[in-house]
Every structure is written in C-alpha cells, then in structure tokens.
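SEQUENCE-TO-STRUCTURE ENTRY
===========================
What this section holds: a protein sequence and its matching fold, both as plain text.
Question of interest: how does this chain fold, as expressed in backbone structure tokens?
***
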Amino acid sequence: MRVGLVCAHAGPTRRTDGPVVGTHQHIARVAAELAVRGHDVRVYERRDDPDVPQHASRDGYHLELVPVGPPAPLPTAQLVPYVPEFGGWLADRWAGDWRPEVVHGHYWVGGLAAAHAVRETDIPVVQTFHSLGVEQLRHLGRAYAGPGERIPLERALTRAVDMAVAQCNDEVDELTRMGLQRASVAMVPTGVDTEQFHPDGEAAPRDQRARILTVGALAPFSGHEDLIRAMRLVGDAELVIAGGPPADQLTGHAEARRLRALAERVGVAEQVKLVGAVPHDQMATWYRSADVVACTPHYASAGRVSLEAMACGVPVVGYAMGGIADAVVDEVTGKLVPPGDVRALGVTLRRLLADHAGRFAYGHAAVDRVRCSYTWERTAGALERLYERVVGRRKPVEA
C-alpha cells in the first residue's frame, strides 16, 4: 500500500514551536514500521532551511521536505496561512507517478494540509491530532497558548476526514463530543521502543536517598509545581526534574527560577534537583535510576513518559487522566491519583517508596504490560488494518 504521512511542521531540529519532538518521533517510527511491513511510505514535512536536502531516505521510507512558506522556522499560528499552498503542492506532487492510496495527517495543521490536498480525489484521509485544542483549553486554562483559530479549524477537520485516530480513551470521548460518529474514531495508542527502553542496562548516578523522577517541559502545565508541593509529605527523597533547556542554561530560565523559589518557600529546596534537557537516547538510564516516576501534567494525550518508564521496569504514580490513565493500571503497574490532588499525590508517593515489595511487583507488571500492549509493531499493525478498512470502504468520486 502507498501511504503518505503529512506533518506541516518542520522537523524537530529546526522548529521553534508546534508539536513536541515526540510527535516527529512518532511519525518517523510509524513510517519505519510500515515500511518493514512492505508498504511504500512517504513522509512530508515543511522545509524551513534551504541548506537541508529536499529528499532523503530513512529507515525504509522516503522523507520529502515541502518548500512552502519562508525558508525559516515559523510558529504554528504563522503556518496556518500556508496550509492551502502546502495542500496544493501535495496535490500537484500526487498527480504524478506516485499517488498515495491513503493519507494520514498528523497534528491539526498537517491534517488540514492533507485534507486540502485530496479534496477533489477519492483518496481517504486518516487523522491523528496528537492533542486537541478544546481539551488543552479545558485543562490548561489561562496557560493555553494555542492560536485562536485552532479549535474551530479542528472541528472543521473532523468533518473532512474518513477516520480519526485517538491515542487515549479521553480523546475518543472528546472527538465524539466534537461531532464525529463513534465508528469514525479508532483508538490506537502510541508505541514504545522496547529495545531502547528496558529494565537491563546502565542507570544514571544517584545518592542513597530514594529518587522520584519526573520528565517534561519546564512550563506551568507540566505539573512540576504540584510535585514540589507534594514533597513536603514524602519525606527523605529527592525529586529529579528532567526537561527544559540544557543544564547550563537553567539559571536564566524563568520557569526554572520560579520552581526553585517555590521549593525554597515550601522547605524542600535541598530535595529538588533540575537537570535540564536529557537527550532521548539517554532517557532510559534516568528512568532506571528512579524508584518511582511521577507523571502529573495537566494534559497528556499519549502518556509517552509513563510508558517509557514502565518499559524500564519502574512503577508510575500519575494523574488519572488522558494517556496516563490508560497506560497505568492502578495498583498493578503503579498508582493513579485524582488530577490536582497534591495531598493524595504526596501520600501515595510516600507509601510507595516505603513499599519495596510493591514497587518490585509493579515494575515487573509494568514491563509485561508495555511488551504486550504498547510496542511499535502493535501500533503499526493497528494502523495497517485501519488503512485497509478506509481504503476498502471509500468509493470513487463521480465526475
């Protein structure tokens, strides 16, 4: 099958904002897994650097950078006016020798470009939003920084696609509330690289205290503030926060300064450690160094951090929402607490850190759960069956 994957943002090494790096990692891994299954896969991203080659072959699939808009990084809001041009470029390209049998849009801007490209054809469109503006607005409130046109455009996009792919059950419910029929929403969670994330291997250095690790951008919506406040109830343990700018730039980072000031005010400054950005290929060593991984973001559609931690055999304490609630089986692979309940979070962390046998059992169950339900092979297989279904039911457009 010929598959076109569309993400209108530039790749992670060149963008300024937009979808998180994890979105591009997700697309690349899906493309590679589909290629292994014998499909002809092409990935389309915006070209924002004229010095970067427009075509490249990677892991069995073809990457094509679309020369639309200025050759410079652009924030999401400034990408929207270029969606018709992006879609027109794709339509022209697909009118030649290579024409996809199914197109899969990623993130809302990529989905708009994909839908625009195929609007006069019989090519079906599958869409993965990765996050929904209406959900982010509900959970983040004033911290939501998406462009104003995002939510109405996402609603319009749901009416233009053949099938929407949700990454968690909360997202399934949200998409149906937005007007999609339940039969037009498929739940396909993200995958985990179990060759990279596994229990055996090196661990990052640590002292004798128990270690709680949390991973995420240094931003108010990441939930780091809740964990710092909860540390008052945890006792003698360290909280390691991985994420944000590189370690040597933390001093000048506003959110890093705010979190450190908060730790001083609540009396846990000696227990809180900010390590800055950690390359993704080194994250497994940090997960293995932790006794517990805490996942407390105010919004998480995929739950990637909880899954990577579980794959490394580490129990997770997380907020019962989004992808975290789907990934973590309460009292089997970790503990779930009500979102925003700092007291419950602190008490749960303290009790789990004191329960060595419980953490051991949770860790083993976590590894089994990831290997059974969250491998990239399983994700690609589900998408492959979904593509076959939408291609089979789409009828040609009459002249």
User: Anything to note?
Assistant: The first helix runs from residue 21 to 36.
